[in-house]
């Protein structure tokens, strides 16, 4: 039977073990649960978690706002979803995905010229995203600006 020698813990290691993670709002704390409810298409539970997350973060959780906007759009509330996607674009102005969602909502509202402006802004940020150029083409088709569609090649 081997004996182990116990050394006293140093003062530094005792201090380190007493430290806790800082308290306060963590913007991403419930994102996993929001995602889980969303992919399971349990939209009512998802909206309840989103409401809780947005209350805790004072409306600054981009992911919660984004998913709520997706749900509202699925429910046919296009204008409300547009406003939420615009909030996401303000919170994260370099996000191409947010701009694409803003443009998609504008398109669904029949605001094709405004959608083109936003898609062009997204294209400046990511020139390799085929979806942006496809949707630009669809907008130009609705406006019967066929010469601009062929210029997208």
Architecture overview:
With 153 residues, this protein is mainly α. The chain folds into two domains: 51 residues, no CATH class; 61 residues, Tetratricopeptide repeat domain (Serine Threonine Protein Phosphatase 5, Tetratricopeptide repeat, Alpha Horseshoe). 67% of the residues lie in helices and 0% in strands. The chain contains nine helices and no strands. Helix 6 runs antiparallel to helix 7 and helix 7 runs antiparallel to helix 8. InterPro entries: TPR-like_helical_dom_sf, TPR_rpt. One of its GO terms (biological process) is protein localization to cilium. Belongs to the BBS4 family. Pfam families: TPR_11.
What's the short story on this structure?
By secondary structure, the chain is mainly α. 67% of the residues lie in helices and 0% in strands.
Features:
mainly alpha; 9 helices; 153 residues; elongated
Write the layout of secondary structure elements.
Blueprint: H1 11-18, H2 31-39, H3 43-56, H4 62-74, H5 78-91, H6 96-108, H7 112-125, H8 130-142, H9 146-150
Helix pairs in contact: 2-3, 2-4, 3-4, 4-5, 5-6, 6-7, 7-8
């Amino acid at each position: 039977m081997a004996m182990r020698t116990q050394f006293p813990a140093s003062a530094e290691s005792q201090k380190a073990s007493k430290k806790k993670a800082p308290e306060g709002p963590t913007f991403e704390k419930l994102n996993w649960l929001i995602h889980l409810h969303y992919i399971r298409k349990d939209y009512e539970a998802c909206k309840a978690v989103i409401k809780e997350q947005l209350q805790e973060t004072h409306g600054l959780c981009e992911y919660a706002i984004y998913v709520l906007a997706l749900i509202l759009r699925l429910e046919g509330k296009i204008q409300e979803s547009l406003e939420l996607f615009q909030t996401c674009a303000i919170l994260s102005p370099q996000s191409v995905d947010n701009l694409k969602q803003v443009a998609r909502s504008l398109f669904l509202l029949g605001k094709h010229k405004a959608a083109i402006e936003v898609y062009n802004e997204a294209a400046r940020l990511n020139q390799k995203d085929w979806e942006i150029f496809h949707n630009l083409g669809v907008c130009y088709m609705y406006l019967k600006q066929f010469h601009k569609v062929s210029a997208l090649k």
